[in-house]
Every structure is written in structure tokens, then in C-alpha cells.
Design goal:
101 residues, mainly alpha, 4 helices
Length: 101
């Protein structure tokens, strides 16, 4: 057939939106590289074949995720006196990263 189209159902659009929000929230909360987060969430998600076909690739949405990550990353200090935010003062095992402040 010529001109046959298959449009996403509303539930599939909602699933894709939820996937993007889940990845974005992990990008904001974690220091894990964005491609790894994207791949892990792709492996965990259960989307239909049509939804997977239109799901944006990591490369296509990388800019938006980087922007979200930069929004919560502290600016580079301009002096030697600055406060270190709590998420950046602990290691991945939640041990104190800095001995003296």
C-alpha cells in the first residue's frame, strides 16, 4: 500500500515522555555519563515497537540533557574561598571526599 501511516497512540507518547523525564532526572541527580544512563534506561524500559522506532537517540537529545546537567553543576570559582556543595563533598560510596575544608 502506498501512503500507509502508523501514528503513535496517546499512551505511547506518554511512555516516551516518561522515559525522557526519567533519563533527565537521572542526569540531574547522578554523575554517571549521559550515554550510560540512556543505555541503562533503554534496557529497562518496555516500549512498543512503534514507540521505540520514534524514540530519539542519545545523540539527538544529548544537548537537552547536557543543559539540564549544567544547570545543577556549580560554577567554577573565581577565588580560593568558596563553599563546596554537599553532593560534591562525598564519594560514590558516600564517604567524605574532603578531609579538611
Amino acid at each position: 500500500m502506498v501512503g500507509e501511516h502508523c501514528y503513535l497512540q496517546e499512551s505511547e507518547k506518554i511512555d516516551i515522555r516518561a522515559f525522557r523525564e526519567k533519563v533527565k532526572q537521572r542526569v540531574i541527580d547522578e554523575t554517571t555519563p549521559i550515554p550510560r544512563i540512556y543505555n541503562e534506561e533503554c534496557a529497562k524500559t518496555t516500549l512498543s515497537t512503534a514507540a521505540i522506532a520514534v524514540l530519539p537517540s542519545e545523540r539527538e537529545i544529548n544537548s537537552a540533557f547536557n543543559k539540564a546537567h549544567r544547570a545543577v553543576t556549580p560554577a567554577i570559582p573565581t577565588t580560593q574561598l568558596f563553599d563546596i556543595p554537599d553532593p560534591f563533598s562525598n564519594t560514590l560510596r558516600n564517604d567524605n571526599f574532603i578531609v579538611l575544608d
